[in-house]
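Two folds, back to back.
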Amino acid sequence: MDINQDMIDAVLAGNRRILARAITLVESTREDHRTKAVELIDALGQSKRTALRIGLSGTPGVGKSTFTESFGMMLVEQGLKVAVLAVDPSSKRSGGSILGDKTRMDRLSRHPNAFIRPSPSSAALGGVARRTREAISLCEAAGFDVVLVETVGVGQSEVMVADMTDLFLLLLAPAGGDELQGVKRGIMEIADLILINKADGELKSQAMRTCADYAGALRLLRKRVQDPKEFPKAMTISALEEDGLETVWAEIETLYDWRKAHGHFDANRGRQAKVWFEDEVRRGVLAQLERDETLQNLQQSLRKKVADGALTPDAAAAEVLQALKTKK
């Protein structure tokens, strides 16, 4: 794929087909594609466009896709342009992904002001895809007002999404607390809004009790400097009946405005840029290890020694790092 001014102009004009091709390029692991991807992102970054980046996670079956579609439809009907980056888990055996999130968002996927891009996690940790940051920056350059990042599922590693979004929403099911005892501490510490979904029908009373439990739990957490007095907070919603979504958006706007006015928004974006830089350096070092034939042969020899017990993993790793340092 060639990077030319026509492609750059097409992305800036919001051409969804070209945007999809651009995201495919940045997700590629080929070395020549990485060079082009860096060139493209650098060129598009000159536009200085930004969007509100919202991370979304939750337990399997909690209704993330239903919420994303209902919430996204509400936003596009208000005249906003919405991009959805949905991360699908990849198989450890085959490496494949179903990428079925787009089919679950039939209404939103057909709206002219919406763009939905499913991406495989490709064994990347953190509930996000390997190049989600780049995909976000491309969507911003394409003129989208809101970028929703729907992660794989709840867990301790999901905190990585906080390093690439402005706000983080945690979706929970009624009476689901017992299942989350092992993971909720880490994930709750980064959540800006906890949304108890399925607050309708017979589950409504349970949802109210669950919301009260989490509201109490939030009060026990250490206060964060980037939050106004009443945040983070827990709320009940029904994505299926589209109840409470406007209130969620109002709370998001309130939090965004406060952080913007007090300098926390820009400070967070700066911190995220440094994290992105450091991640790219680490990836570059790993790529060098994978490309260099001498280092590959050394690692292959050391793997056998480690497996046979002739060398400890720490000692073997130190030998590889010393070889890398010598090559420099």
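---
second:
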Amino acid sequence: MDTLLIVDAQNDFCPGGALAAPNGNEVVPVINKIMDKFDLVIASKDWHPEESTHFEKWPLHCIRGTKGAEFHPDLRVDNINQIFLKGTEGEDDGYSAFEATNLNLEEYLKNHKADRLYICGLTTEYCVKDTALNAVEAGFATYVIEDAIRPVNVNPGDGDEAIRQMKDAGCQIVTSMNLN
């Protein structure tokens, strides 16, 4: 089963947000366009408490229940079958969707007979990369949709380095045009 995992397509990671990926909003039309190609569509959300050690490294973002934590308003949420919440504890960075606390992502995928996992969303060098690396470790054929991800690029080239690391780990890098 082909599964699309939308990683953190939230307001705070888009222009105007607290931790915006430049042009992060550009992933939304690509994601909306490809959703119907998948048997199962799931998503993750950063869902931080206000008091978190995560904010020793990062500005306040994706505080649960705030506008910044909501999905981008143009994202088609009607097709999302399940949402996985991560970073929900005060000591939890929650970069990978496999660290979700409301449901176990690996078990969910295996129970739904998912074998190929296509990953898109925000941000390339943190949440997308960590999710993709965990997917490979869990034994899923993992594809990262390059035109449906964007980096924060805290340091120039961080996004490109993350793509290299994902390739080296066994992820296939594809574009939305290559999907059947």
